[in-house]
Recover the amino acids of this structure.
């Protein structure tokens, strides 16, 4: 019950914010009868209505994970964000090995298999992408090998 | 005899050694992708699209490769449904109902071969149906103006929301999320930025591939972290494969009926393969009656959903190719592929680029035969794929997704968006909010708005124009009925839930 109500409330807020920002869209002097604002506002209105319906008539709650699993999920998200930032400056091999190992550890918490799968995936995928598919990946940070 | 000459054109493209090789590679890869737990046709095809793009294949080759992967993944999906009780995607759910019990009785080999044959029958009949029906529908599609297209898009969203989900409001929210995201970026007609919040990265809009890979592939990783990869080991015995001629022969009418039901369900825009396998299974269950033993592992219970599922996959290509409206999650992904390759689906596709359409149809026929030959004798190889542990597989999928999206734009911003979509996908699926309408919204949002605005330009702002032709009135009625009727039918047509041991 509570989850759907919260989601409905969030959806309602986002929809209202969406409508508010849609009203700020600049219109050009050469506009058609509908203009660039109407459709986004319509979508926002429908979403807001659905959010209200969810607040009034929520479904039973799903089974949410426990606190420890939330921790693992949070670690995974942080690691993935870090991976997104590091892929360009740090090259492919090192960030991939670290990220894959951490993800692997979150799925099955055993250190050695996680480290091995991180290393294996990093090197294996690099060979696959670089030589079989011909993608222009950089293996190491550029400064390191000059 | 248009069809025969067109088909000859198609085969002349599809039978070149290079294209044939792509089809075989695609089928093989597809079956593996389908068989891997946690990867299905939609996310499997989604993570491969960026890579195909970077390989620099021409449009026809890329299309042949990816549709073979698509068909292959539909075949492969049954392997994890039957042996692990894990459906690769929603349509495969029905196969677990009888497939898994049959595998537990020690007849896993029979179940796999029978479902392979049923898939073949369903897919073959559907491809033939596609050949006959698509050109006709393409001719009707010429009558569609902007107001008809607007009503058609609405129909797709409302049937998707009405039939494929448990709660209308949630499906509608999902559509709105997708449509809302599609609005971000430079407005097509005025050329001014909309809803970008001043962020330069958002000026081009949000790439649908980023959203698809995030929602389908990255979200899956979070689910595996939640479950710690449990339930992905084979619990049933599986030793030798024989061809169960008797069961195949006994289920021939089931296969034919289910193919027809599945094909028709697949054609309905927005309904797609889930509805096809569901209707095929329930109607066969009703025909067999109480003594049919459905749910305990009977051959008919495997043949029906597999034939229906694969027939619906073919049927879903009809509206996708002729009208540009996908019927399911996977056809939405295929539409994304077409758009990436700069092919605009629609009636003009059949006249302007017949080589693409008929090359595709011919390669579907070839892929189907290849898959049957590959799946019956080599099924043991694919079963071995199931033993890849989740803690290697899922990090691997994540890395492939990152590299694929990174190779599209080379920007960290798209990767961040992808992670964001992964989190969104996890939360939505937890709350039982379908993610397919989000994808459809992102893919179709721009077209839907364009249709509305062009209709209003034609009528000079008069909204009555939207209901001015018989076709659009019919589509509006169908849209409203498709959204409202399931509310009342929900108690009658309850979706069977997964069997648990």
């Amino acid at each position: 019950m509570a989850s759907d109500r919260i989601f409905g409330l969030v959806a309602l807020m986002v929809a209202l914010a969406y409508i508010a920002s849609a009203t700020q869209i600049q219109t050009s002097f050469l506009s058609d009868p509908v203009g660039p604002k109407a459709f986004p506002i319509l979508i926002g209105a429908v979403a807001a209505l659905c959010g209200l319906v969810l607040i009034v008539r929520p479904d039973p709650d799903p089974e949410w994970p426990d606190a420890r699993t939330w921790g693992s999920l949070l670690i995974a998200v942080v690691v993935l964000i870090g991976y997104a930032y590091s892929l360009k400056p740090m090259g492919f091999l090192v960030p991939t090995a670290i990220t894959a190992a951490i993800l692997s550890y979150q799925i099955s918490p055993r250190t050695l298999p996680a480290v091995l799968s991180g290393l294996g995936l990093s090197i294996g995928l690099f060979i696959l992408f670089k030589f079989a598919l011909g993608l222009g990946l950089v293996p190491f940070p550029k400064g390191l090998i000059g | 005899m248009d069809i025969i000459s067109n088909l000859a054109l198609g085969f002349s493209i599809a039978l070149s050694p290079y294209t044939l090789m792509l089809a075989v590679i695609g089928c093989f890869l597809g079956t593996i992708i389908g068989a891997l737990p946690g990867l299905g046709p939609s996310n499997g095809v989604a993570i491969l699209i960026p890579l195909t793009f970077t390989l620099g294949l021409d449009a026809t080759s890329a299309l042949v490769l990816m549709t073979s992967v698509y068909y292959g993944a539909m075949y492969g999906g049954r392997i994890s449904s039957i042996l692990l009780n894990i459906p690769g995607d929603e349509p495969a759910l029905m196969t677990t109902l009888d497939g898994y019990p049959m595998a537990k009785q020690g007849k896993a080999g029979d179940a796999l071969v029978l479902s392979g044959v049923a898939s073949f029958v369903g897919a073959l009949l559907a491809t033939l149906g596609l050949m006959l029906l698509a050109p006709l529908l393409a001719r009707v599609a010429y009558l569609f103006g902007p107001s008809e297209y607007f009503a058609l898009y609405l129909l797709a969203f409302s049937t998707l929301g009405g039939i494929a989900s448990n709660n209308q409001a949630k499906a509608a929210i999902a559509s709105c999320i997708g449509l809302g995201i599609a609005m971000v970026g430079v407005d097509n007609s005025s050329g001014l930025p909309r809803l970008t919040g001043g962020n330069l990265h958002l000026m081009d809009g949000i790439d649908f591939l980023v959203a698809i890979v995030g929602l389908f592939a990255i979200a899956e990783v979070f689910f595996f972290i939640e479950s710690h990869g449990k339930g992905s080991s084979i619990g049933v015995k599986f030793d030798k494969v024989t061809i169960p001629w008797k069961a195949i022969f006994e289920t021939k009418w089931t296969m034919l009926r289910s193919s027809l039901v599945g094909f028709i369900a697949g054609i309905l825009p927005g309904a797609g393969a889930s509805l096809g396998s569901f209707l095929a299974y329930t109607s066969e269950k009703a025909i067999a009656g109480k003594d049919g033993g459905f749910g305990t592992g009977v051959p008919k219970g495997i043949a029906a959903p597999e034939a229906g599922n694969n027939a619906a996959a073919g049927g879903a290509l009809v509206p996708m190719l002729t009208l540009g409206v996908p019927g399911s999650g996977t056809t939405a992904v295929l539409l994304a592929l077409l758009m990436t390759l700069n092919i605009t689906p629609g009636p003009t596709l059949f006249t302007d680029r017949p080589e693409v359409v008929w090359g595709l149809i011919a390669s579907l026929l070839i892929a189907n035969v290849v898959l049957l030959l590959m799946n019956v004798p080599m099924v043991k190889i694919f079963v071995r794929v199931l033993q890849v542990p989740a803690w290697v597989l899922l990090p691997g999928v994540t890395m492939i997704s990152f590299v694929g999206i990174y190779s599209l734009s080379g920007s960290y911003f798209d990767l961040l968006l992808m992670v964001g979509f992964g989190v969104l996908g996890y939360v939505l699926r937890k709350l039982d909010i379908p993610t397919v309408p989000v994808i459809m919204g992102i893919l179709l949002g721009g077209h839907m708005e364009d249709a509305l605005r062009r209709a209003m330009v034609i009528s000079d702002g008069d909204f009555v124009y939207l209901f001015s032709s018989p076709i659009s009135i019919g589509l509006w009625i169908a849209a409203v009925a498709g959204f409202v009727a399931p509310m009342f039918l929900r108690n009658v047509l309850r979706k069977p839930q997964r069997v648990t041991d």
Q: What stands out?
A: Chain A has two domains: 2-56, 67-145. The mean pLDDT of chain A is 86. The two ends of chain A are 59 Å apart (CA to CA).
